[in-house]
Amino acid sequence: MSRNIFGCEQVQPLHIIGGGLAGCEAAWQAARAGIPVILHEMRPHKGTEAHETGRLAEMVCSNSFRSDDHQTSAVGLLHEEMRRAGSLVMQAADANKVPAGSALAVDREGFSHSIEAALAALPNVTIERNEVAGLPPAEWRHVIIATGPLTSAPLAQAISELTGAESLAFFDAIAPIVYADSIDLSQAWYQSRYDKPGPGGTGKDYINCPLDVGQYTAFIDALITGEKTQFKEWERDTPYFEGCLPIEVMAERGPQTLRYGPMKPVGLTNPHRPEKPHAVVQLRQDNALGTLYNIVGFQTKLKHAEQTRIFRSIPGLQNARFARLGGIHRNTFINSPRLLDNRLRLKTMPRLRFAGQITGVEGYVESAAMGLLAGLFAAAEIQGRDMPPPPANTAMGALLQHLTGGAAADSFQPMNVNFGLFPPIDAPVTTDGKRVRGKAKAPARKGSFCSRALQDQQEWLALLPIISAAP
Asked: Which pLDDT tens digit goes with each residue over 159-192?
């Protein structure tokens, strides 16, 4: 804290660079703790290769937050932990959800509008539309850098020079979006895998397009031979993230790869034909009106004309009209295990914190979770308190520990939340004390991870008085 000209204590502002999901979540958490926040977002003053608007919290790739099951899914558990911590991102997601089977998917525009409106309504949040072109000024004593996968070149260069190492990078690809009324439902049909309903869903939350053996083979050949975007010289050695491979890269790994990936036919029954499909393309609702559907897992670096030609060869999509074609963009992240402490501070310059995808987490929810923690850590520090990290048994704690020391720095790569990051747990047992075996073992073990995490989180939240503060 400092003092103003009248000798009164004056709270130092928190500067947050980046208005994506992580930056907005950090701003919300700090502001509701009473900290003045200045949120810097360069769009629309300066755009990126992937964003289409100047809105805060714009969702670029998918509209899905993945599984919402907090009893057997690691990402669903992360959803629940964030809800219990008063997450703005989860509030907006729940308020703008669209049917998506067992997943939580959102209307993009409604989601972004909810985030922006909530932050704009807070009297201690200032949103500045400007680019921070380089390291933040020295007089900014508390800073969170949450610039995401598309950090502007001047800031990225400054971070690289400060840390003494090149930021790692990979390409993140975007799936196409189709107008629902252009899909031929005499060939396609509505169904979730195994008819499983999800948040706001009915069990018929996806549109499915079947392919027989010949159609699938021709489709794979077209993907492999189709004309692709050519990378610039400096981009050619950049690795892909394994969890978001372009569909044509998957096809190049073997003719059956896609049948065991996004085009797997399991859990689906074609009502138009008796024989089981050889492969299935799924489309997931992308907006609340149900007028837009994105092609699940079809992130691509095919040129736009090739996308239109090849994707219209899929039964049911012969007359598809595309609201957005696929694309690809460069994604940068720092070597967090080497550079950050367990409060997400840069070891060599602790006034700087990092949050979101630039830290090496992958996924919307994981990025927002790191923003949540960075906002809480920064608020506590400004108020002269030390806030403990979340327990390692929780999803947030497991991710944080992975980023700040659990992962090997020499081989660090982006990571989604998963139970492999959690400390081991005792084998699940039945009520009579016998070990759970067979097919019941895996869900029981996941359930044990989840129940332990929520119990530990409850004890951690009790230590944080700012969680219950009114926004």
From this structure: 989 987 666 667 767 889 999 999 999 999 999 9
Q: How far apart are CA 355 and CA 288, in angstroms?
A: 29
Q: Per-residue pLDDT tens for 369-380?
A: 999 999 999 999
Does an H or E element contain 330, and which?
Answer: strand 327-333
Which residues are 208's β-sheet partners? 189, 282
Q: Which residue has the tokens 């978001």?
A: 244
Q: Which residue reads 């807070």 in tokens? A: 122
Q: Are strands 143-145 and 349-354 parallel, antiparallel or unpaired?
A: parallel
Indicate the residue type of 401. Q
Q: What mean pLDDT do residues 93-122 have?
A: 96
pLDDT reported for residue 468: 39
Nearest to 56 by CA among 148, 135, 155: 148
Q: What are phi and psi of 289, to 5 degrees?
A: -75, -15
Q: Is 389 helix (H, G, I), strand (E, B) or coil?
A: coil
SS3 6: coil
Q: How many residues does the chain have?
A: 471
Cβ atoms of 346 and 160 within 8 Å: the answer is no
Per the CB < 8 A criterion, the answer to whether 340 and 359 are in contact is yes
SS3 125: strand
Q: 31, 159 in Cβ contact below 8 A? A: no
- How far CA 313 is from CA of 253, 309, 387, in Å, comes to 21, 7, 55
Domains and CATH numbers, the chain: 2-167+334-468 (3.50.50.60), 173-330 (2.40.30.260)
Which pTM was predicted?
0.81
Phi, psi of 435 (to 5 degrees): -65, 140
